[in-house]
Amino acid sequence: MEQHLDLFVMKYGYVGIFFALALGVLGIPIPDEVLMTYAGYAVSRGVLNMPYTILSAFLGASAGITISYFIGLKWGLPLLIKVGPYIHISPKKIEATQKLFARYGSYLLLVGYFLPGIRHISAYLAGISSMDYRRFAGFSYAGALIWSMTFLLLGKALQKEWFKVVVYIRHYGITFLLVAAALALAAYLLVKWRQNIRSG
Questions:
Q1: Tens digits of residue pLDDT in 55-77
Q2: In sequence order, what are the residues at sequence separation of 6 or more whose Cβ sits closer than 8 angstroms to the Cβ of residue 102?
Q3: In angstroms, rounded to a whole number, what is the distance separating the alpha carbons of residues 108 and 128?
């Protein structure tokens, strides 16, 4: 796996990361977390530059969710039900995400990146539910940035042990999600607190 990722990063670089994440969020079966963790490892080796890698990952993920949002807004649920099975989005995932979205909505966009399957469908549901674009953008783009930086920094910190992140996710996925959700919530509260101070 490492050899293939190394060839991908060396050949396509930041443009490859952008398109891989954009297509991955749209539902194409691309191992996003693996790619991002390895990209962090590539940063530690000096192959990639961290600011450019973060930017390309953020823009790629943001492009994917934005396209998903407008598809959901224009064509809605019938299309998702029809094509979902072909892009690994099952009716059960759709139903589960609808329930979560109805209850938690915006926050699901913020932390949904850390949930495979949910990441691929939450933006569609935001469009289907006609969520205001500014609200959608605020939460989902923040989530894209937090998710991108989390795996890049993990890969950079672990260096040659980067692949352990994949093992940890498989074995400790719920714990990882809770930690990520807590970090995302803390970031959101910090932003709101600063806004209140400025307005007050």
A1: 999 999 999 999 989 988 887 77
A2: none
A3: 15
